[in-house]
Sequence to fold (119 residues):
Amino acid sequence: QVQLVESGGGLVQGGGSLRLSCVASGLTFSRYVMAWFRQAPGKDRELVASISSRVGTTIYTDSVKGRFTISRDNAKNTVYLQMNSLKPEDTAVYYCAARDRASASYDLWGAGTQVTVSS
Fold:
């Protein structure tokens, strides 16, 4: 059974930092492109960052460039999202997602972890 389990969310003051973790099980982790999405109340889910399966190429949405860093540890089946200089507009539920490197869409999802940034 494939599972993605996020952790590390919480309440933080503006300007603070959090690190999210997502542990994957039941899949060959090194084959999968991993990503973090987020969804704020009343808004569509958006891709925050992704990291490729082989060489670790990263992509970020413009609003988090220079503040967030996605990384992965294939030996631990884990992907991370380091979030620095957090802003109230980063408040959302953050989801870990995975897609096979041969697939075009993300079809594996975690349950999400809440991140709340106070002003």
